[in-house]
Design goal:
By secondary structure, the chain is an alpha+beta fold. It has helices at residues 4-13, 21-53, 66-81, 94-105, 130-140, 149-152, 154-192, 194-202, 207-246, 259-291, and strands spanning 56-61, 86-92, 118-124, 145-148.
Length: 292
């Protein structure tokens, strides 16, 4: 069908407001990529946090008598080093502990009425070894306290999992909203140009040929608008990543994107264009089958 390209351009360009599709596509993809980046970032941070905290313990030996405390800590250290399932044992020195608590307790921390407990950091070969190791610690010092890092960071892990789920839901909602916008735009173009399409049918055009005109126009809008929106979104994500890294926080610094995450984000614009084009084709064929 000669002049099909020009006709396809006119079919959508002349429909009121349909050229705004380029801007709409850009905004939708911008929001979608931000939501996807949030989900990927929090998912990666949660996995990193789990890897770091799984199988890590802190043993706390509390005693008002420094000599008794140090003796109990020495017994616990020996018991830990001889226990199977323990990869590393590191007693935390009193000088280091005093430096850590000095901003809150002042320079007299650890002296006189402000004793500081003995702390021992423990890395396990596997999280399953924790119960046996805890039992060995209590045999060496019944008053010792064993804290599992994963336990006290569980609320943080749950919150990050919640953020990941919300981001995934937002991606789904934005994708559904984009499809709805495409369908509405196509139906509007079909209604406005109903007479033109009937003439095209009389001249021998098929529904598939008409659908291709709309499909191409929507794909172009999605490619241009989505490309601009996607580039802006990538720039925003990169800037936010640099700011989070500059904070120096081990937890927030983990909310960064790995190479595979960037690849997934780069694949979103072409996937977005294909999704919009497929939705336009389906909407046109369905509408023409019912009305023409």
């Amino acid at each position: 069908m000669s002049g099909g390209g020009e006709t396809g351009t006119r079919v959508l360009d002349e429909a009121g407001g349909l050229r705004a599709m380029t801007g709409i596509m850009g905004i939708m993809l911008f929001l979608l990529m931000l939501a996807a980046a949030l989900g990927l970032g929090t998912l990666g941070a949660a996995r990193t946090l789990d890897r770091r905290l799984a199988g890590r313990l802190t043993v706390q030996v509390v005693d008002g008598d420094p000599a008794a405390r140090d003796a109990a800590a020495e017994r616990v250290t020996r018991a830990l080093r001889s226990s199977p399932g323990v990869a590393r044992v590191r007693p935390v020195g009193q000088a280091e502990l005093r430096r850590l608590v000095e901003p809150w307790l002042g320079s007299d921390a650890g002296v006189g009425a402000l004793p500081i407990p003995a702390l021992i950091d423990v890395d396990l070969t596997g999280e399953g070894a924790a119960p046996a190791v805890a039992a060995a610690v209590r045999r060496a010092a019944p008053t010792a306290r064993v804290d599992r890092h994963a336990a006290w960071m569980l609320p943080v892990s749950r919150f990050m999992a919640l953020l990941t789920g919300l981001a995934a839901a937002l991606v789904g909602v934005l994708a559904a909203a984009t499809l709805a916008v495409v369908v509405l735009a196509v139906r509007s173009g079909l209604d406005v140009h109903r007479g033109t399409i009937e003439v095209m049918h009389m001249l021998g055009s098929t529904d598939i040929q008409v659908a291709r005109l709309f499909q191409r126009r929507i794909a172009i809008d999605a490619l241009i608008g989505g490309g601009v929106g996607g580039l802006i979104a990538l720039g925003v994500v990169w800037l936010l990543g640099r700011q989070l890294g500059a904070l120096g926080s081990e937890l927030l610094g983990g909310v960064t994107l790995a190479r595979r995450d960037w690849i997934l984000l780069l694949l979103l614009p072409p996937a977005f264009m294909l999704l919009a084009a497929a939705a336009a084709r389906r909407a046109v064929l369905g509408h023409l089958a019912r009305t023409l």
